[in-house]
């Protein structure tokens, strides 16, 4: 296992918990070392949106799991090198905490570390509609180097199921990490 394939996956309490779980599945299947951290609110959204066993199953998929309150975990330190981090979905609360370096839990601390170490941080921010405060937080995070990638369906791909949308969004998010993997999302080859 190389640092180049070590990825942190954060799941926060916005709607769309399945996005984080699908990203985790794809990364682990691609041979990456995955470090999962789930916020307390996300534990509730995962149970509500997917089912009572879903969190346990997600934890079985990750190669490493960290408790949200464990700010002493490996991923809380810049000396623990990684290829990047994705937060999927990213709530407005977690976005705001990241944008203001309010690192009071491990997910936000790990994201803060990725920014300070100038590593890839991809945030699948999920809320609608947005007020100016949300937009300002996205601008702040972008200015600090994060990539804001809201999970907006690619309708032009003609998805047939919700899972098609989740899978494509997850693959695009992984592509944004710029890992040394084969492109996971099929590139668009233009309208015929
Ligand atoms: C079913 C459900 C769906 C939610 N969806 C969103 C959402 O899409 N975006 C958001 O910012 N917050 C959403 N929330 C609210 C967050 O869970 C709440 O703000 C929480 O404090 C976020 O904490 P975290 O950032 O530590 O995960 C939702 C809550 C529930 C129970």
From TrEMBL:
Belongs to the UbiX/PAD1 family. It is an enzyme of class 2 (transferase). Dimethylallyl phosphate binds at residues 156, 172. InterPro entries: Flavin_trans-like, Flavoprotein, UbiX-like. The gene is ubiX. This is Flavin prenyltransferase UbiX. Coiled coil: none annotated. It holds the Pfam family Flavoprotein. It comes from Microvirga terricola. It catalyses: dimethylallyl phosphate + FMNH2 = prenylated FMNH2 + phosphate. Keywords: Flavoprotein, FMN, Prenyltransferase, Transferase. FMN binds at residues 13-15, 39, 91-94, 126. Residues 6-168 form the Flavoprotein domain. Flavin prenyltransferase that catalyzes the synthesis of the prenylated FMN cofactor (prenyl-FMN) for 4-hydroxy-3-polyprenylbenzoic acid decarboxylase UbiD. The prenyltransferase is metal-independent and links a dimethylallyl moiety from dimethylallyl monophosphate (DMAP) to the flavin N5 and C6 atoms of FMN. Its EC number is 2.5.1.129.
